[in-house]
Each structure stands twice: as C-alpha cells, then as structure tokens.
Amino acid sequence: MTETALRAAQAAGRVLMKFFLGKAENFREFKGRNDLVTSADLESCRIIKKHLKRSFPKHSFLFEEQEYSESNGSDYLWIVDPLDGTTFHNRGLPFFSVIIALQIRNRIELSLSYCPFTSDLFMSRRGKGSFQSNNRFHLYKRLQVSKTKQLEEAIIGYSYGKTESQAEQISQILKQLLPSCRALTRIAGSDIGYVASGACDAFLDNSSTPWDFAAAALMVREAGGKVTDFAGRGWHSGSQTILASNKILHSQILNIINTSNRDSSPNPTTS
Length: 271
Description:
The protein is of the alpha+beta class. The protein folds into two domains: 2-136, Fructose-1,6-Bisphosphatase, Chain A, domain 1; 151-264, D-Maltodextrin-Binding Protein, domain 2. It has seven helices and 14 strands. It has a seven-stranded mixed beta sheet with strand order 3-4-5-6-7-8-9, with helices on both faces. A five-stranded mixed beta sheet has the order 11-10-12-14-13, with helices on both faces. The chain has a two-stranded antiparallel ribbon with strand order 1-2. α1 runs antiparallel to α2 (39-55) and α5 (190-197) packs parallel to α6 (210-222).
C-alpha cells in the first residue's frame, strides 16, 4: 500500500509539473472565494485514482474533487488532495503538494505529502514514525518536531480559509500572532511536512477538511507533535479547525487564537 501510494503521488507530481511549466493549458474555475479548481487538479485526481483503483479495486476513495470519490463499504479509505496549493501552482509559485492518506477502520494508518518541485517526500506510518526523503539531495531522515520553547522564536504556517468569514477570522488571529512570533509562512501542504521535520514550529487553519489534514495529523503526531482543533480537542476528520505544533508551544498559540476570537466577537447589545 505504501509503494502504491508513493507511485501514485510521484505520477501525479509529474503531471502537476507539466502544467506548472506551461506544457499543458491549465483551465481554472472558482468554487468559492479562495477555492480554486484547475485542469491540473482534475488530471492529478485521475492519475491518482487510476493507480489506487488498479491495485485496490474494492477500497473506498475520498477526494477533494468529489466526482472522484467512491464509497464501496470498505474498511479501507484513501483520502486524497491531488493538488494542495492550487492557487500557488496556478500562479507559478512552487509551493504545492500531493497529499494522500490511508484510513483503515476509521484510523489513519499511512500518510504522505509529496512536493514535486523540490522533490521533498514526507511520509508516516502509525507507530513507525515520520520520515523525509529527497532523492535529488540524497536525503533520508527520521522527523522530529522542533524544540522551540519561546513563541518569539517560532515560525508559524497558516491557511486563510475558503470563505470571507474564515479569511477574516484568520486575519484577526494573524494580527495577534505576528508581533509575538519570529515569522509567518504560507507554503501550502509543505507546511505540514516542515512542522513534522521541525523546520516550521506550528501550523493553523480554520477550514479543516479530511483531504487537507488527515495525512498531516498522523505525520505531526508520529514526529512527536500535538494536533488539536482551536478548542484544544484532539483533531479528527470531522474537526473544522486545526492547530499542529510541537507540544511546548501549543497552549501558547491556542491562548492567542482564543483571545483573538473573543476580541473579534460582536459585543452583546444592552437594553
């Protein structure tokens, strides 16, 4: 299953690079304010589904692009984001990834995030740890989240939501975080791998979906990190928000998120 997922991700990566380099025309359509789908998304879906379906025809599939999803009543569910970072990919920025997770009997057991531009591959298996490899640079290492203790030293990744209200909420949180941390970064699905590797200290998002973060949650936890929603509850596929970090900074960031949310709530009317 691991080898099949890897082959599917690499095949999709080659397709995404073809579009990225302008060797195929990339039509686009907006599903929402910050929710873009392109020809590259759909072709990546097709390639991944073909690889997985050929090897595991009785499994179920959950894709970001719902027309590729398929429920077969199986204990095995492949959860796929064929192109995380569609906007960046469409604009010629190299911050995009292929994300694949395998859920078995309602538990995520395998996850990978592949960045075709950099050749970085982040992979994890439940109970086996998280690893990063890069054939281009002959890199292979076990991942561990950062040991950063002070928020002012932290590099924090984020996503800006898919609706106007979600974007507004994130902007208020970032307004509180920016003076307190070293830097904010926005590099799509790569953020999660870099949180697991310790290069990035935390990541937050308020439009959580299984295809975006099922793989991420396992990857960061297997690297020794903590993954919750904004209320501090353990993240699961039904969660609407996510904070992934090393365990040291987690409560500090949650406090800022909750303070921001309280401050931006409408004042109660008085009679």
